[in-house]
Amino acid sequence: MLDLRYVVDHLEPVRARLARRGGAYGPLLEEIAGFAAERRTAIIESERIARELNDATAAMAKIADKKSPDFAAAREKNRALGDQRKVFELQQAQAEASIAERLQSLPNEPDDSAPDGLDEEHNVEVKRWGTVPTMDFAPKDHYDLGVALGILDFERAVKLSGPRFAVLWGQGALLERALISFMLDMHTREHGYTELCTPYLVKDSALFGTGNLPKFADQLFRIATSDERTYDLYLIPTAEVPVTNLHADEILADEQLPRKYTAFTPCFRAEAGAAGRDTKGMIRQHQFDKIELVRLERPEDSDAAHETLTRHAEQVLERLGLHYRRVLLCAGDMGFSAKKTYDIEVWLPGQQKFREISSCSNFGDFQARRAGLKYRPADDGKGKAKPRLLHTINGSALAVGRTLVAVLEQYQQADGSVIVPEALRPYCGGLERITPRR
Fold first, then answer.
1. Last residue of a domain, one of 56, 76, 103
2. 143 and 45 in one domain?
3. Which of 119, 260, 325, 416 is the most exposed place for a label (fewest CB within 10 A)?
4. CA 401 to CA 67: how far, in whole Å?
5. Beta strands at 391-399 and 287-297: parallel, antiparallel or unpaired
6. Residue 338 domain-assigned (yes or no)
7. Which residues carry out catalysis?
8. Residue 178 — very low, low, confident or very high, per pLDDT cuts 50/70/90?
9. Percent of all residues in the chain with a pLDDT value above 90, rounded to a whole number
């Protein structure tokens, strides 16, 4: 969430930066400025009346005869002043509620380095790694490959849960588990992330903290309130939600930074409005596995941390030998909470195109302000430093199902078999090749 004082004091620059996202945020900004003025007036009047009330109370205390008309008049004046103060306090509260409602609907400001543009056509390719796999046959997509190999079952998944689910059989399930263990080992043993195992159900406050609520309520699976609790729970759309909120409303010490976390979780997304887009296969599912990286950083370190986290995600693909590219998203194509985003896109021979496999974003203090994520800087010799908002960075490293898809498609052979990347073989009991099930 953006800072109210910053928005009001820099209304025109904020308007210009948000316009780069393509939304019509001008009316919201004007309303925020209007309610901020009402709030300021209410505070000033409330404080003025408070001073009058203090003076009147002191004067009333000096009246010796508590039954005199003067005392009764003074008491009536105090009562009237108290009622007036309550009116302005109510006006302040109403203005603050109106401001909060509108502020939480504003997205983050795009970073100056984000290219101009409103859709993926204006994203900028930053780098490529590897080369397109050479195949002397027409490559198949993962759907046909997996079904022919007997490792992907979509028909039975529909019977169990409906469309956009999959059942992995045998070596397919083994490959999924191998990818999970491989990624976690890389991030914990080589990159120094602390592994977490978090709940898969969270309160709405956690989803608000990361910016998923209220804007993306239709993308979430909600578990209705039961007799045992007074709040709703939601299935997590990504591990970003519980991990980022792990230190919500805490003040970390400077020496505790940075915090570097990784977590494997299943992820659940309603994908409302996505009908017809990648509904066949494993690209866009209601339930999928993901390894997430989350960093809590000092503001001055967040840009470098964003680059480092993105490299950690890329190195997974490099270790697996998968051709990919990095793309810098334009202002209009970034997520609601992000100020700068790199998408990592892996090559899928079956589709003859790059497809997103990770999104790595720097959110600045946007999520931290919503979730109450703070730290206390080290003592600078001038006294105890005041708490500051942290910066949050996160990215998929990687989306496991899409990585499995990329392995199947980039390592497919003319006879319908799939070579297992060398990096995964120790996690697959030495398995070198997946062959069609007889």
1. 103
2. no
3. 119
4. 82
5. antiparallel
6. yes
7. 269, 284, 356, 359, 402
8. very high
9. 83
Higher pLDDT: 75 or 268? It is: 268
Does pLDDT of 273 surpass 60?
no
Q: Are 196 and 296 in contact (CB under 8 A)?
A: no
* Whole-number Å distance between alpha carbons of 200 and 126: 34
Same domain membership, residue 65 and residue 174: no
Question: Residue 2: CB partners within 8 Å, gap ≥ 6?
Answer: 14, 103, 106, 108, 109, 366, 369
What is the number of structural domains in the chain?
2
Reported confidence tier of residue 424, pLDDT bands at 50, 70, 90: very high
Q: 279 and 242 share a domain?
A: yes
DSSP bridge partners of 324: 129, 346
Q: What is the amino acid identity at position 405?
A: V
For residue 278, name the pLDDT band (cuts at 50, 70, 90).
low
323 phi and psi, to 5 degrees?
Answer: -65, 130
Q: Considering 47, 76, 103, which residue would you say is the last residue of a domain?
A: 103
Confidence of residue 277 (pLDDT cuts 50, 70, 90): low
- What range defines the domain where residue 297 resides? 120-434
Clarify whether residues 279 and 208 are in a common domain. Answer: yes
The overall average pLDDT reported for the chain is 93
Instruction: Return the percentage of the chain with pLDDT > 70, whole number.
Output: 97
Q: What CATH number is given to the structural domain containing 402?
A: 3.30.930.10
